[in-house]
Amino acid sequence: MPLDSVLVTGTGLAGTATAILLASRGVAVDLVEVDPGVTALGSGITLQGNALRVLRDLGVWDRVRAEGFAFDDLGLRAPDGTLLAEIPDARTGGPGLPATLGMPRPALARILTSRAREAGAKIRYGVAATGLHQDGTGADVSFSDGGTSRYDLVVGADGIRSATRRLVGIEVEPRPTGMGIWRAFGPRPASVTRTDLVYGGPCHIAGYCPTGEDSLYAYLVEDARDRGGLTPAQRLAVMRELASGYHGPWDEIRETLLDPDRVNYTRFETHVLPPPWHRGRVVLIGDAAHSCPPTLAQGGAQALEDAAVLAELLLDTGSVTEELLSAFTARRFDRARTVVEASNQLGQWLLDREQGDVPGLMGRVAALVSHPA
């Protein structure tokens, strides 16, 4: 059957990218999101060059570049603020793109959803897929708003807790890695012009990433703890206390940590769905299929690569077949698994206080993702 209609669940990076690529080539795309809209608040995201390569293909690179902050090297500092090293970062997107770009997550979400609408995708917020019945030619989907529709393909891009994954009977759930992360979004001091990382001190990692001319996000990675009972004010106090063990630009950042609503804490989790990533005419991508801690800043990039590869295969053949969906998993599985395992290994070395070959591991991943997916 020809590919005429697709349902995409989830308006994260994987979902919106898939919708853009398919809708811009004439496929009727419904994009549904259980949340009531694009969030107005949030932290930042670090996008490596291979993510920027896909964003360029989506036609949003100029907008992303205008709202983000690009840089080409990485700094390593001691807890007292001393600069230990400046390391040129790999340009994994090719010579025409910066090595890395930071930007506010909500800004990226608005850019991608706007582009999806421009491409012709129909977006509905506050709606979830609640039922699914498949046959040999399509999938009938029922929704939380009472509606039903039939599609040639359903793309589950609804995140690490994917409801689509459960709808098709896949019970895989992410496991904790043993680490948790504090994140705060705030103003950018003039001294912050790239990501600097500190290993050691009160936390495993202290870092920050500029996200615009006037913004950054800062983060502290610690052993996973039960932080769920803290009030917003208490969360702010804990992050400020942990940040007091770091100096240099951190002294300026810490003084801006004043708004409890701009601080959040989450635990790292990880999983890789074994092949295949589809069941009938439902295929899982992005965090629904694989998730990893942000130790390599590759989560968003891998989600975007999933979307690019799936759309390429679908548009090249113009139909949905078992062979095509199997080929999608075959093309993506090893690469995504390698990134997940490397991200987990970096964290495990820190948990074990082991001096692993961090430069070697990061170099191998950079070499891998420098080639288009």
Task: Please explain how this structure is put together.
This protein folds into two domains: 5-69 and 101-174 and 269-369, 3-Layer(bba) Sandwich (FAD/NAD(P)-binding domain); 177-268, D-Amino Acid Oxidase, Chain A, domain 2 (2-Layer Sandwich), CATH 3.30.9. The protein contains ten helices and 20 strands. The strands form four sheets. It has an eight-stranded mixed sheet. The longest helix is centred in the last third of the chain and has 30 residues, at 322-351. The relative contact order is 0.17. The chain has 373 residues and is an alpha+beta fold. The model has no long low-confidence stretch (mean pLDDT 96). It is 34% helix and 29% strand. It has helices at 13-23, 49-57, 61-67, 105-119, 163-167, 232-243, 249-255, 299-317, 322-351, 358-369, and strands at 5-9, 28-33, 44-48, 69-71, 73-77, 83-88, 100-104, 122-125, 129-134, 139-143, 148-151, 153-156, 175-186, 195-199, 205-212, 215-223, 263-272, 278-279, 282-284, 290-291. A hairpin with a 4-residue loop joins strand 10 and strand 11.
Determine the structural class based on helices, strands and strand pairing.
Answer: alpha+beta
Please name the CATH topology of the largest domain. Answer: FAD/NAD(P)-binding domain
Uncertain stretches: none
Number of strands: 20
User: Can you give the helix content as a percent range?
Assistant: 25-40%
Query: What's the CATH H-level homologous superfamily of the largest domain?
Result: FAD/NAD(P)-binding domain
| Count of distinct structural domains | 2
Largest sheet: 8 strands, mixed
Mean pLDDT reading: 96
The end-to-end span amounts to 27 Å
* Secondary structure tally, helices: 10
CATH class of the largest domain: Alpha Beta
Tell me the radius of gyration.
Answer: 20 Å
Strand order of the largest sheet: 6-5-14-15-16-13-17-20
